[in-house]
Amino acid sequence: MTKEQSPTTPETAGPRPRRLTYAAVLTALEGVGLAVGGLWVLVMGLAGDPDDRQQAVTLGVTLVALALLPLLAARGLFAQRSWSRGPSVITQILALPVAYSLLQADSIAIPAGIAIAAAAIATLVFLVNSETTQALGIRGPGSAPDQK
After folding, report:
1. Residue 107 in this model has a pLDDT that exceeds 90
2. For residue 138, which of 70, 88, 83, 90 has the smallest C-alpha distance?
3. DSSP states along 39-87
4. In this structure, are residues 19 and 126 in contact, taking their beta carbons and an 8 Å threshold?
5. pTM as predicted
């Protein structure tokens, strides 16, 4: 891999744009929310009286495992690693159907759906911004560096 092909490193990167910081913070908050929700379901599945203990424990463990994706992506965004945008975008795309299903509920889940949708849409906007893309060293299609 030549120097021109290598991704931007923190030593050569410029200052982190505010939008990239906002995207990293929102992605981290989503990861923390998943982890807390997973731990809560896990504890309630073990200590409480669920209808199906095995299903509650499985859901809790799954949510905690899923929390790793946005948490790792947020860490990469803070460090301006180009690979981190993909997992963060995937997290936001997966959050939108969750938000939609919460908005369809006729309960107290509606505010949670609004918050999840707002965070996912805002994060997507921050991630596709040209400043963010530039800071992460991501080039668009057909914009290969000049070979000399």
Report:
1. no
2. 83
3. HHHHHHHHHS--S-HHHHHHHHHHHHHHHHHHHHHHHHHHTT-GGGHHH
4. yes
5. 0.81
